[in-house]
Write a structure and sequence with these properties.
Blueprint (H helix, E strand, L loop, with lengths): L7 H8 L6 E5 L5 H8 L5 E6 L2 H13 L6 E5 L14 E7 L1 H10 L9 E6 L4 H9 L2 E11 L2 E10 L6 H6 L1 H6 L2 H23 L4 H21 L1
Parallel strand pairs: 1-2, 1-4, 2-3, 4-5
Antiparallel strand pairs: 5-7, 6-7
Helix pairs in contact: 4-5, 8-9
């Protein structure tokens, strides 16, 4: 992977960036994504934010190597603090972290989202945390994708301002992913169900306290509900 050819995961993120957006890529690592977006003519201006010195230096090097220093600003900053008002950022990408961490980044510096019309978020795990954040902060999930690359499954969530309540099942599975129900979605949740069955077996070995009994019932209900979606 490089600034000319992204991984399938990052290429999917890139596909959701609006034409002519000003994008801030938070946790940019090598800045491959913003460099690709500029090279492809999707955006003319971008910010690459990194909180760790090593990746920040890698991003600086990549931007210089691609001769994009005029178009891409690299900043060493904590999360959305990499965004300054004069940047005019309209889209934010955050990829390759856990869902709860992405949600905490969005919460930590909410003023960084002023003027932002789209969030493209790719959690490695626990996408539910992002959906819960969206509902709590008046963002809607306007699109979703689920892909498999190198044996790992990733979800990509696209958020825009607006209000739309989600059921517990939609928070867990994703409304649009549930409706599409592609092969990767089925694979992911078939694997999750198998893991839940393992947890249930372990619970059977524990003392059957009221708390354990309640957890078992909750898990059984979840398994039954998700199996109903996959059927």
């Amino acid at each position: 992977m490089n600034a000319q050819k992204l991984s399938k995961r990052l290429a999917t993120v890139a596909a959701f960036v609006p034409q002519d957006a000003v994008v801030a890529d938070i946790g940019s690592d090598h800045a491959y994504l913003p460099c690709f977006l500029v090279n492809q003519g999707i955006v003319k201006k971008a910010v690459a934010g990194e909180v760790v010195k090593g990746p920040y230096e890698s991003a600086c090097h990549e931007v210089q190597r691609e001769q994009l220093s005029e178009q891409i600003t690299v900043r060493l900053a904590n999360g959305l603090e990499a965004i300054q008002p004069e940047d005019g950022v309209t889209a934010v990408t955050i990829a390759g972290m856990g869902g709860p961490l992405i949600a905490s980044i969005l919460d930590h510096y909410p003023q960084g989202l002023e003027g932002v019309t789209r969030l493209i978020l790719q959690p490695n795990i626990h996408a539910i945390a992002i959906r819960e954040w969206a509902v709590a902060h008046d963002f809607m999930i306007v699109d979703e994708a689920i892909i498999k690359e190198d044996g790992k499954i990733y979800e990509i969530l696209v958020l825009e301002k607006g209000k739309k309540p989600l059921s517990e099942l939609e928070l867990l599975l994703g409304e649009k992913l549930m409706a599409e129900r592609n092969d990767v979605f089925v694979e992911k949740w078939t694997h999750e169900i198998a893991q839940w069955h393992t947890v249930l077996k372990n619970m059977e070995k524990a003392e059957q306290t009221p708390a354990i009994m309640n957890k078992k019932q909750e898990l059984l209900t979840k398994i039954e509900t998700v199996e109903g979606v996959l059927a």
